Amino acid sequence: MGILRMNQAADNKTGLASNKVQSSRKKEDWKKIILILVLFVGGLLFLYPFLWMISTSLKDNVEVYTRPLALIPQIFKPANYQRAFTLVPFGRFYLNTIIMTLGRVCGQVLLAAMAAYSFARLKFPGKNFLFIMVLGVMMVPSMVSFIPRFIMMMKLGWLDTYWGLIIPGLGDAFGVFLLRQFFLTIPQDLIDASVMDGCNPFQTFLKVALPLSRAALAAYGFLVVLWTWNDFLWPLIIATRTKMLTISLGIQLFQNQYSQDIPAMMAAASISILPMTILFLFAQRYIIEGITMSGLKF
Amino acid sequence: MGSTKLRGRALSEALWGYAMIGPTILLLVIFSYVALGASLGISFTDWHVLLPPHWVGLTNYINIFQDPLFLKGLWNTARYVLMSIPIGQSLALILALILNTNIRFRNFFRLVYFLPVLTMPVAIAVVWKWIYNPAFGPIAIFLQTVGLKPIIWLTNVKMAMWSIVFISVWAGIGYNMVIMLAGLQNIPREYYEAAEVDGASSLAKIFNITLPLLTPTLFFTLITSFINGLQMFDMVYVLTQGGPIDSTRTIVFQVYEDGVKSLYAGTSSAEAWVLFIIIMVITLVQFRIQRKWVYYE
User: Fold this and answer.
1) Residue B271 in contact with residue B64, Cβ under 8 Å?
2) Distance from CA of B28 to the nearest CA of A (A)
3) Can you give the pLDDT at residue A14?
């Protein structure tokens, strides 16, 4: 009843002001159309390099230098992709990148989650001190410790190894901090129940905490995948021999050696982007969430 | 009996606690703290990695400030940050404000503007290098068809830094936009409703409600943009190698060249520490200034 009356009242009101509303709505519509146009022009500026990259990757090498510039190739040359894989061992670079990314994401998420749970839910002496120590790492730009890390890797004989690519990055203060926030929100009852069942803290972590924070783990995991896949400076330092290069270094190598073969280079660039784009389309929600969470760092 | 059992449980919990943080702490100690300390120590030596080090005190620090290349790196890094951050931040903010309304194709636009964030910087650089190509790149061809002279981008001392700034702004907008969108979502609707009752225009709402309440988010994106911008490396490495005539040489590029390429660990570490101190000071100053402009509820 009450709602009905309120609706009627609202109707009366709009009836009275309908002329005014209509004209202001028209104005609103115009504003929106202009905004959409602006977004489209801007969007084109963002999309064009990608379209151009894909189009060039399918063009004949001669067509690249002809005018006018057409976005749709005259002759489709998918063989450019094959060439990208044979001129330099791109297959191997792909494998290296996948191994590095998998190693990092598995290790980093597991270690960060374990530490985060411990900080969030277990009692032990020195916890605050250790947590501050972890937080301190977040303040230091990683590049300050690059040279000693490079020397450590050299002395350990880890240059040009997967160990060198994976292990130094496994301790991640940001992940610990992020996941701790989530573990703090798990109801104490659930943890108590699991302890009653005779679970030790690690079992509780595995059986209660991890399943409850799947979304947070996924979001963090995707961020780690993205960062590792696109990383450039660390692989540049670790990998010197061609067979240990990652995709990002491979593209750079390609550019240095075959800078005239633009279609193959664009093919190489296209396939470097593909996995992350697919992953993003499937997991958009998690990735956006992850980035949003990374914005809550402070 | 009961108390020893309890103590036993507390002890076991503590042991599990240590065991679970152990790997992370160990890795962070070795690769962050020890490495950080080592880099400070190394910066006081003249150490070519293949030769034994000698203690030289502050010599490296004195030398790098007389090294024209390092000074150029400082100057270029400052230029890069001061050029890219104001442009990048304001564009990201405008985009976020527009995309926060219920405009059509909203999700499509979000994806499009976000695409460069997913792309590896090296791929971005390689693609843009050809878009910039003064003879065959799309920009040159476009300028020619409208009857303008092609612009020389990357090999021109005047334009090289702008070219890099433009690409990094393009590549970074999506990230800041998403964070700002999240910040915008967190502003309670009631404020707007109250303003509507008062008959506030949409521009007035933006300036009186949205922007003040968004300042904590803007503070975050500003700080991270500074920290990241001061460490600019990838694009420079791929696009210009610091050239032409060192006009895009940044500090991190210099650190890389001296340390990893020439193996002068002492010089390189001193340069890295100077950058570290610069980043710390700028961040601290920003935390100081924030009281004047960041609005906390």
Assistant:
1) yes
2) 6
3) 45
How many other CB atoms are found less than 10 A from the CB of residue B98? 18
Binned at pLDDT 50, 70 and 90, residue A21 comes out as: low
Give me the pLDDT at residue A56, please: 86
Domain regions of chain B by residue span: 2-42, 67-293
3-state secondary structure of B264: strand
Q: Which two tokens stand for residue A110?
A: 């597991």
What does the block give as tokens for B231? 């460490």
Please answer yes or no on whether A140 and B32 come within 8 Å at the CB atom: yes
Is CATH 3.40.50.1010 correct for A80-294?
Answer: no
Q: Tell me yes or no: is domain B67-293 CATH 1.10.3720.10.
A: yes
Which DSSP category does B206 fall into?
I
- Smallest CA–CA distance, residue B158 to chain A, in Å, is 23
- Give the pLDDT confidence score for residue A181 in this predicted structure: 79
Q: Across chain B, what does the average pLDDT equal?
A: 86
Alpha helices in chain A (DSSP H): 2-16, 18-57, 79-87, 90-121, 127-139, 146-156, 162-166, 173-183, 188-196, 201-204, 210-212, 214-230, 233-238, 247-257, 262-294
- Sites in chain B below the pLDDT cut of 70: 1-6, 297
Picking from A140, A167, A298, the nearest residue to B36 by CB comes out as: A140
What is the tens place of the pLDDT at every residue in A53-62? Answer: 888 888 877 7
Q: Contact B252/A171, CB-based, under 8 Å? A: no
Min Cα distance B206 → chain A (Å) is 15
Q: Would the pTM of this model clear 0.90, i.e. be above it?
A: no
Neighbours of B161 (CB within 10 A): 21
Element housing A253 (H / E): helix A247-257
Q: Name residue, tokens 């050239």.
A: B243
Per-residue pLDDT at A298 exceeds 80: no
Tens of pLDDT, residues B71-104: 999 999 999 999 999 999 999 999 998 888 877 7
Chain B residues closer than 8 Å to A65 by CB: 136
Determine phi and psi for B54, rounding to 5 degrees. Answer: -125, 145
Q: How many residues does chain A have?
A: 298
* Exposure string for A6-45, b = 16+ CB within 10 A, e = fewer: eeeeeeeeeeeeeeeeeeeeeeeeeeeeebbeebeebbee
B39 and A144 in contact by Cβ < 8 A? yes
Q: B148: buried, middle or exposed (CB in 10 Å: 19+, 13-18, 0-12)?
A: exposed
